[in-house]
Amino acid sequence: MAHMQLRRLNLFSMEPRIKTLHLTWLAFFVSFIVWFNHAPLMAAIRSSLHLTDQEVAALLILNVALTIPARVVIGMLVDRFGPRLMFSLLLAISGALCIPFALATDFATLALSRFLLAIVGAGFVVGIRMIGEWFPAKETGLAQGIYAGFGNFGSAAAAVTLPTIALLAGGEQGWRWALGLTGVIAILYAIFFYAAVSNTPKGATYFSPKKMGAMEVTSRGDFILYVLMQIPLVLALALLAWKLGPANLKLLSAPVTDLIYLSLAALLAYQTYDSVRINRPMLSGVPVPTLQRYKFGQVAVLCIAYFVTFGSELAVVSVLPLLFKDTFSLSLTVAGFVGASFGATTFFARPAGGGLSDRFGRRRLMLLCMLGTAAGYLAMSFIGTSTGVVFGVVVTFLCSLFVNAGNGAVYAMLPLIKRRMTGQIAGIVGAFGNVGGVLFLTLYSFVAPHTFFLVAAATALVGLALIYLFVQEPKGQIAEEMPDGTLTMIDVA
């Protein structure tokens, strides 16, 4: 069935929406190359700058730290200023930040530039809004899946090409040329992207939130839930500070770590204040018109679902190579291939998840993917010398299909909740995916692999229950307000 959908959405067509799809996934592809350009060159960077194991671990943490708040903030900005401008700016800024990282001669410069480079991980959010503008409800799942699946492949492209480029550049400093080249490519593509795309099809209206800041919600119960959903985002950042602080990597002093904790508490207080400011009329008793209401509970469940699927994927991809090497005494190359295969299925599984959602229903496919994810991680908990390497490879592959299809199913539904806030919704859902990565990786550092996979299976079952209880299949139409104050109806069925 997915094949039938792909044929109907002719990827070789010259029509504007297909052109926009290709240019947008290429922007995401470039952003992923920049985000993970250091990973395949880390051995050369470590040798050149004489980094300690703690400093290498810190760089890996810093590369995801700023992505969590960046996805939320970029989500707000893309709804306000449009994906064309925001993707171009994000690529240009991150491309420029590659230069000091490539030229760094000390750990401090390396760490600061890597920390700031983490903003490029928010590029994913921008494209979700762009694709949502260009494709109707019956095709948005497949289009979003192609965008995310093809774009995610940027990290694999970096892993394959950058070491070769560094080798061709020659010498111990070849890694600097490879990293600098990714920055130049990002800047050039930013200019091209801005010139080549538009936010909406010709004649269509780009709907923006009435106020800049926190999300608009439509009931007091939703407001409380929205405020509560900010807490895990802040706690994940606090956990990263703890890992860098005196209790673990000892790269931050106790006073600096405490200052970060205080700053995060202040950030949570401000976010709560801003939520009140944006939603004051509704909180004061002014009813939201029925046609303009939406259920934030739907967004909250999508956050949990993405926490389970994408969050666990980030962790599993990071730990699988070492797990297979230690368990089955495989070579680094073979173990690395097995580990990479878990994420590589995103190339076809994520578009399939989106396409099948369009065909058979978004809620139904999310339930199936959560069930498959739970079963997959349960099976992976049995990986060991007694079950053999073939069993390990097979269950890993099957589990990855459900996990990546689940990612596609989540984002197939997301653009159909509230059009003018698609960026904000994509931002908070995407941020929860990164939170999941942080928490799952932290869990793995404390428990045995068997226990880790059992906990992952249990969280998938929680996601399954929440989807079953609280998620409704999009149907009918949603209303959006035109610039002249009139309402227009958008099909979501």
Description:
A two-stranded antiparallel sheet has the order 1-2. Helices cover 74% and strands 2% of the residues. The protein is mostly helical and 493 residues long. It folds into 3 domains: 14-196, Up-down Bundle (Growth Hormone, Chain: A); 214-218 and 288-479, Growth Hormone, Chain: A, CATH 1.20.1250; 220-287, no CATH class. Strand 1 and strand 2 (487-491) form a beta hairpin.
What characteristics describe this protein?
single chain; 493 residues; mainly alpha; Growth Hormone, Chain: A; 3 domains; two-stranded antiparallel ribbon; 21 helices; globular; disordered N terminus
Question: What is the topology?
Answer:
Layout: H1 2-8, H2 16-35, H3 42-49, H4 53-65, H5 67-81, H6 83-103, H7 107-117, H8 123-134, H9 137-152, H10 154-169, H11 174-196, H12 220-244, H13 254-278, H14 280-283, H15 296-328, H16 332-344, H17 346-360, H18 362-380, H19 389-413, H20 422-444, H21 449-470, E1 477-481, E2 487-491
Antiparallel strand pairs: 1-2
Helix pairs in contact: 1-17, 2-6, 2-8, 2-9, 2-10, 2-11, 4-7, 5-6, 5-8, 5-20, 6-7, 6-8, 6-11, 8-9, 8-20, 9-17, 9-19, 10-11, 12-13, 12-20, 15-16, 15-19, 15-20, 15-21, 16-19, 17-18, 17-19, 18-19, 18-21
